[in-house]
Amino acid sequence: MRPQPINNIMDIVPYKGGESKIAGFDKVHKLSSNENPLECSPLARQAFIEEAQNLHAYPDGAHVKLREAIATRYGLDVNRIICGNGSDELFQLLGRSFIAPGDEIIQSEYGFLAYGLLAQQQGAKCISAKTKDYVTQVDAIIAAITPKTKAIFLDNPSNPTGTYISFDEVKRLHAAIPSNIILVLDAAYAEYVNNNDYSAGLELAGEFENVIMTRTFSKIHGLAALRIGWAYGARNIIDAMNRVRDPFNLNSAAIAAGVAALNDYEFVAASNAHNSKWLEILSAEFNDNGFKAIPSVTNFIMVEFDSENTANRFDEHLKSYGIIARKIGSYKLSQNIRISIGTDEANQLLIKAMKEFK
Ligand SMILES: *Cc1c(COP(=O)(O)O)cnc(C)c1O
Hints:
Distance between the termini: 56 Å
CATH topology of the largest domain: Aspartate Aminotransferase, domain 2
CATH class of the largest domain: Alpha Beta
Strand content: 15-25%
CATH superfamily of the largest domain: Type I PLP-dependent aspartate aminotransferase-like (Major domain)
Bound molecules: pyridoxal-5'-phosphate
């Protein structure tokens, strides 16, 4: 017999990132991966380049400078921060340290694909709680809890829907779950949300032993290539995750660029302003031109079509303008398409494409 992978490894459908090429186009507008159209902080780029002097040396395995910068920026206890090679790695560390074969995790319907993948890898089951109008329903999540539930993964705001729930709703969810279940607040898009009733959840993660909040440098900081994520939570959770992580999970260039990016408030503010402006314009243009844009608080917009066929036709139509959007059939949303907010040029082109779609 051949070597056999454990658990349900061979049932896993490998994650596929957004496309980046269109045949016949030299230059494309990649609006398929929620990347920052303003690129990244010039200070972060400079810090990255300077690290080229130190390639012979191992990175700081404890990420002290980055954790200190995060602690200072957000007023946190540095000992309760963990950094990961992207927030994807943080989810993996949670899985490895808290989820065993036969366990269950709960996500909101259309939850970020990484959650389901990690459940499969651990031999656990990922239960999806129904949404309403693409918005997470706290009561549906509560109703899905069983004695096997180990963690609840809440992407808030959600990808690929772009919707969010208020902090009051998150607190209501937390109050209703048994204390042995971890509530994971994935706040990858937090910096884009300008609504007063939203919170990434630092307050909860600071107070309770079963809450952890994750963040990323891939979105508003524009450092997706460097893979930097961080999490803040109860000591017991962070301690377990630290025991299963690679000793040098972040490289030196990522640590240096991360610190610089965090301190470039100007770049973050400019990114938020660019996004807020275009989110409003593009959402209105979609709706005015007969499309159904789902209200978003993120750096992308999900558009719902009357059929999978129309969604595919619009996707092809965008390609003829050099625009790559994201088909989201892997989220069981074949009738929908997700489009990131782009540069001024890309957004203008997108509006033209909307108007010329038949
Ligand atoms: C983009 C994204 C992340 C960030 O992933 P990284 O591994 O940090 O690049 C996390 N969660 C959600 C829901 C996302 O959309």
